[in-house]
């Protein structure tokens, strides 16, 4: 059983052509992979922590094994909490892009995106 992470990032919701395409893909995916889990991450309804200077320094300090200040540790903890739900180590399938084909440069103008 795999887990598919669908990241939805359009604020237009029902008016979004890309979301409509992705939902069609997800419906087909569910039919062909009934044992898999699909998780939707809606960026527009997710409380994302600010990635400020403390978070930036904490990121590189943690990569380099350096000690964090209390402010940096707090900022990095918020980032880690956001990622924790998505890092369980389960096998994941890559999903194809749910947008226009790269060979159609005018698609955004026609769809109103």
Put the structure in a nutshell:
With 113 residues, the chain is an alpha+beta fold. The protein has helices at 17-32, 53-63, 70-84, 107-111, and strands at residues 3-8, 37-42.
- Give the tally of structural domains: 2
Radius of gyration: 18 Å
Low-confidence stretches: 91-113
Given helix and strand content, the structural type is alpha+beta
Helix content: 40-55%
> Secondary-structure element order, as H and E?
EHEHHH
Number of E strands = 2
Give the termini separation. Answer: 35 Å
Instruction: Please count the helical segments.
Output: 4
Task: Map the helices and strands.
Elements: E1 3-8, H1 17-32, E2 37-42, H2 53-63, H3 70-84, H4 107-111
Helix pairs in contact: 2-3
Task: Give your account of this protein's structure.
This protein has 113 residues and is of the alpha+beta class. The protein has helices at residues 17-32, 53-63, 70-84, 107-111; strands spanning 3-8, 37-42. The chain folds into two domains: 1-46; 49-92, no CATH class. It contains four helices and two strands, in the order βαβααα. A two-stranded parallel sheet has the order 1-2. Strand 1 (3-8), helix 1 (17-32) and strand 2 (37-42) form a beta-alpha-beta unit. The two termini are 35 Å apart.
């Amino acid at each position: 059983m795999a887990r598919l992470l669908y990241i939805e990032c359009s604020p237009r919701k029902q008016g979004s052509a890309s979301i409509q395409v992705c939902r069609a893909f997800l419906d087909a995916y569910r039919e062909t992979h009934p044992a898999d889990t699909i998780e939707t991450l809606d960026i527009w309804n997710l409380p994302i922590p600010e990635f400020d200077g403390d978070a930036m320094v904490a990121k590189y300090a943690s990569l380099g094994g350096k000690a964090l200040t209390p402010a940096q540790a707090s900022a990095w903890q918020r980032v880690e909490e956001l990622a924790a739900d998505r890092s369980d180590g389960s096998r994941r399938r890559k999903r194809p892009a749910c947008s226009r084909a790269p060979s159609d440069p005018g698609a955004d103008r026609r769809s109103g995106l």
